[in-house]
Amino acid sequence: MNPEQVLKYFYEKYTLKQLRFLFWNWLDAGISNEGVGYDEGIERSFLLLLYEHIYCLVEAAYNLNVNATRS
Q1: Which domain holds residue 41?
Q2: Which of 2, 8, 15, 63 is surrounded by the fewest CB atoms within 10 Å?
Q3: Are the C-beta atoms of residues 37 and 54 closer than 8 Å to each other?
Q4: What b-and-e string marks burial along 19-50, b requiring 16 or more CB atoms within 10 Å of the CB?
Q5: Alpha helix (H) residue ranges in the chain
Q6: Which residues contact 48 (CB under 8 A, 6 or more apart)?
Q7: Residue 3's pLDDT is what?
Q8: What are the residues whose beta carbons fall under 8 Å from the beta carbon of 54, sequence distance 6 or more?
Q9: CA of 53: how far to CAs of 10, 32, 70, 71, in Å?
Q10: How many domains does the chain have?
Q11: From CA 70, how far away is CA 64, in angstroms rounded?
Q12: Whole-number Å distance between alpha carbons of 42 and 19
């Protein structure tokens, strides 16, 4: 119901540096381990693209949160 509060709470728990590290570990686990559902090259490519898109959303939300906090 309150997206600003969600962002505030989220970024009180995680820094961008922590999120980059956690997302990268998540991606690495999905790509490098067998039998996790990303066995084909195209599936791994999709996972890389999804990672980039999600992280762009995280950065955008971070900037929105910073701007809202300054106001």
Answers
A1: 3-70
A2: 2
A3: no
A4: beeeeeeebeebeeeeeeebeeeeeeeebeee
A5: 3-13, 16-32, 41-70
A6: 27, 31
A7: 87
A8: 23
A9: 18, 20, 26, 27
A10: 1
A11: 10
A12: 25
For residue range 1-18, what is the model confidence (pLDDT) as tens digits? 888 899 999 999 999 999
Rounded Cα distance between 21 and 39, Å, is 23
Phi, psi of 36 (to 5 degrees): -105, 10
Residue 60 confidence (pLDDT) = 94
Which residue in the block uniquely carries the two structure tokens 């955008």? 60
Give CB contacts under 8 A, 24+ apart, made by 16-20.
16/58, 16/59, 16/62, 19/55, 19/58, 20/55
Pick from 36-40, 50-54, 57-61, 62-66: least confident: 36-40
Residue 20 in this model has a pLDDT that exceeds 80: yes
